[in-house]
Amino acid sequence: MIRKAEQRDHAAIVSIINAAAQRYKGAIPEDRWHEPYMPRAEFESEIAHGVEFWVAEDGGRLQGVMGIQDKGPVALIRHAYVDPGAQRKGVGTHLLRHFQALVKKPVLIGTWAAATWAIDFYRRNGFTLTDEKQKNRLLKTYWSIPARQVETSVVLADERWMEAEGGRAP
């Protein structure tokens, strides 16, 4: 079952994010990595900045989390993680499909350039890597991240964005 996250889910969501983020250790540049990867205060700040979290739940146990952030002409997928014990069972795909059905505007996803497994996941699910120029413009337009993170990240776009923009940056 996929549902909107509730206050009572927050501790479990942060736990899933931090457990799943361990796979990124080494893919995230050392100067951008920190422990825990997402402290509770940062999670709460993301909510305050408009990230709406949804959870995949099975038998009362949270298995995955994905956030969505409305940025006017586009929606951003933010903080998509699956509990390590539930990975490779379709949880991430179900969450992604849920968002694609909810949102009627182009969807963008940012991730670390060295996180090839994450990039492959999104590509298998119909997303396309933007080129370097598009990536830089999109990250500066829709995300609030440091320059170092812009340098070491990629942006993937769904078919709606590719069709609307013809593969060009807005």
Rg, Å, rounded? 15 Å
Along the chain, the helix and strand elements come as EHHEEEHEHEHHEH
The mean pLDDT is: 94
CATH evolutionary superfamily: Gcn5-related N-acetyltransferase (GNAT)
Mind describing the biggest β-sheet? 7 strands, mixed
| Number of helices, where a helix is a run of at least 4 consecutive DSSP H or I residues | 7
Q: What's the arrangement of strands in the largest beta sheet?
A: 1-2-3-4-5-7-6
Query: Architecture, according to CATH?
Result: 3-Layer(aba) Sandwich
Strand content: 15-25%
Give the class-level CATH name.
Answer: Alpha Beta
- Find the structural class using helix and strand composition: alpha+beta
Shape: globular
Distance between the termini: 35 Å
Number of strands: 7
Number of domains: 1
> Any low-confidence stretches, pLDDT <50, length ≥5?
none
Output the CATH topology: Aminopeptidase
Structure, explained:
This protein has 170 residues and is of the alpha+beta class. The chain has a single domain (2-165), classed as Aminopeptidase (3-Layer(aba) Sandwich), CATH 3.40.630. Helix content is 38%, strand content 25%. It is built from 7 helices and 7 strands, in the order E-H-H-E-E-E-H-E-H-E-H-H-E-H. A 7-stranded mixed beta sheet has the order 1-2-3-4-5-7-6, sandwiched between helices. A hairpin with a 4-residue loop joins strand 3 (61-70) and strand 4. The chain is globular, with a radius of gyration of 15 Å.
Write the layout of secondary structure elements.
Elements lengths: L1 E3 L5 H12 L18 H9 L2 E8 L2 E10 L4 E8 L8 H12 L4 E6 L3 H9 L3 E2 L2 H11 L4 H5 L1 E5 L1 H7 L5
Parallel strand pairs: 4-5
Antiparallel strand pairs: 1-2, 2-3, 3-4, 5-7, 6-7
